[in-house]
Amino acid sequence: MKTKKSKEELQDDRIDQLGQVVKKIRLSLGLTQSEVAEALHVTPGYISNVENNRTAMSLRVLVYYAELTNTTLDTLVGLTQTDYQATALDNDIMRAISSLDRRDKEKLLQTIRLWTE
User: Do 56 and 50 touch, CB atoms closer than 8 A?
Assistant: First the structure.
C-alpha cells in the first residue's frame, strides 16, 4: 500500500526533477545547451550537469533561466497553486507574440480588442 507523501516530500521530489524540467523547457524552445549557457554566463558543462541532476542550479542562475525561458520560478520548481499553472498554449502564444515586429503586435492587439468588446 502506498503512503501519501507530505508536502515537503513532494517539493523535494520536484526539486530533484529540476534538471528534467530545465531540459524539457530548453528543448521545447529549440535552444542548445551552449545557447542557454551563453545567455546565463555559465559553461555548457554546467547546464549539462544541471540537466543530469549532478549539480543544483544556483538561485541567481535559476532566476535568469526563468526570465530567459519566459517562465516562473514556481513553474520550474513545481510550487505553484494548481489554479495558476502555465499551460502549453499560453507558452506557445507568448513565443509567437515575441517573434512579431512592433507593427504586427499593434495589429494583433487591435484584433484582440475587437474580439473582447
Answer: yes
Domain boundaries, the chain: 1-81, 87-117
Q: Which residue has the cell 549557457?
A: 37
State pTM to two decimals: 0.58
Angle formed by the axes of helices 18-28 and 44-51, to 10°?
A: 120
The amino acid that residue 34 corresponds to is S
Cβ-based neighbours of 74, under 8 Å, separated by 6 or more: 80, 84
Q: How far apart are the C-alpha atoms of 86 and 44, rounded to whole Å?
A: 27
Q: Tell which residue, 63, 66, 46, 42, has the closest CA to residue 54.
A: 46
Q: What is the pLDDT of residues 40-67, one digit of tens each?
A: 999 999 999 999 999 989 999 999 999 9
Record: fold of 1-81? 434 Repressor (Amino-terminal Domain) (1.10.260)
CA angle, 69 then 73 then 76, to 5°: 70
Amino acid of residue 106: E
